[in-house]
Design brief:
By secondary structure, the protein is mainly alpha-helical. It contains six helices and two strands. It has a two-stranded antiparallel sheet with strand order 1-2. It is rod-shaped, with a radius of gyration of 53 Å.
């Protein structure tokens, strides 16, 4: 005895809703969207590489200057013959200009070195941590890409890849829409075949009941009754 099916009704969905649902859930479209996002990043990067660049570079250093005085640091004593001639010439010019004479400074043996430079490692570290000799540096570096064919080639390649991905997505959307249309058509065709099979089963049942009643009245034969019954069973199987 065939069992009655509880899910005979076809899903109630229109074609546009089915296409939107398929486009929102197909994993190949999601993978293609990720690839397109990567291509957009590459295009932005390569486009930036074709432009001029201006970089600001800054630096700050400290020096610890110290050491022992050397003989090379000494100077000739003040008051030598060269200095006396120089001051004599200056006094002559001052006299002509009605200015006071310049007295030469007292002579000294060596030039004095400041104490903060005299010492070893300790003095050097002390000058370093005391920030006595800082050096600050600020630079502007500009790069002008003249005929930067590599960056332009990379940009052109990424743009071509982006166009190919766009065409690929359009083609994939068309394939998905075609598959949805085929599936919807198959569902409708199956629904119509099911309706036809149900009608055929009902007609076969009516013919079988009618032929059975005629047999009970003596107006038919066993062969005709069995034939109607066979047609009815066949229609039941077709409906299932």
């Amino acid at each position: 005895v065939p069992a009655d099916l509880a899910d005979r009704s076809a899903p109630a969905i229109v074609l546009d809703e089915a296409v939107k649902l398929a486009l929102a859930r197909r994993p190949e479209l999601r993978a293609l969207d990720i690839t397109r996002a990567q291509n957009e990043i590459d295009r932005a990067f390569f486009k930036n590489q074709t432009k001029a660049q201006l970089n600001v570079v800054g630096g700050y250093t400290l020096s610890g200057l110290a050491g022992d005085p050397l003989e090379s640091t000494t100077e000739p004593p003040v008051g030598s013959s060269a200095d006396n001639a120089l001051y004599a010439r200056l006094n002559e010019l001052s006299l002509i200009a009605n200015l006071d004479a310049i007295d030469p400074p007292p002579s000294s043996g060596t030039a004095a070195v400041p104490e903060l430079f005299v010492g070893g490692l300790g003095r050097s570290l002390g000058n370093l941590f005391a920030h006595r000799f800082p050096t600050a540096l600020v630079q502007l570096q500009m790069e002008l890409p003249l005929r930067n064919r590599t960056a332009r080639a990379n940009l052109a390649r990424s743009e071509i890849a982006g166009t190919q991905l766009e065409r690929q997505r359009q083609q994939l959307e068309q394939v998905i829409e075609s598959e949805v249309r085929d599936s919807m058509q198959a569902v409708r065709s199956s629904e119509q075949r099911f309706g036809a099979a149900s009608s055929q089963r009902r007609y076969a049942l009516e013919q079988y009941e009618s032929e059975r009643r005629r047999f009970e009245s003596g107006l038919s034969t066993v062969f005709l009754v069995l034939e109607r019954q066979t047609v009815y069973v066949t229609s039941q199987a077709l409906e299932l």
